[in-house]
Amino acid sequence: MSCPHLSGIAALLKSSHPDWTPAAIKSAIMTTADVVDNQGNQIVGERLTPADLFATGAGHVNPSRANDPGLIYDLTPDEYIAYLCGLGYTDNQVRILAGNNVSCSMITSIREGELNYPSFSVTLGRSQTINPTVTNVGDAMSAYSLEIVKPPGVDVSVKPDALHFSNMNERLTYFLTFSQLQSGSGGSTGFAQGSLKWVYGTTRARDYGYHG
Predict the structure, then answer these.
(1) pLDDT tens digits for 101-133?
(2) What is the rounded CA–CA span in Å between residue 11 and residue 145?
């Protein structure tokens, strides 16, 4: 988020939501971004050719929608530390990044998929299940339905397939399972992208994931 435009938008969101963490602000920006341009066409890259999923990222930032994302994926510093320990960083390296004393031997490390991040990245072989948690920052009484676009060659299941909130800042967890389809069932090689949307009225909190 070093881009000055994004930094300015993050500052505006922080002024509007002073209790939001940096992770919450990033989540709001990512899950509400537009995946097409203002003409409704596919986003293009610097060569004016269709951008692939890595160039597109979350899409074009939509500040007004980011101010009211409905749901956010929040993260604590402790989760990042557990992830860094899981990557094999030494105590000294994590200590430099975290700014305080860390002993990875005393911490239960987590994988990338276990980070409560609004983008899911998995390398498929056997079936994998992750359990993201969303926080309701929209209407207190709200019910979100599910829309899924599955990546080619991948089966995606979500339980539950609806989220019902009764309070602001209420947190709910869902279980997201990725399974590779059998060869000959539409499987693919390389990487692919799908999306998962939680929908409430005109509010859409979109997550997306890759497989390779």
Answers:
(1) 999 999 999 888 788 999 888 777 788 899 999
(2) 31
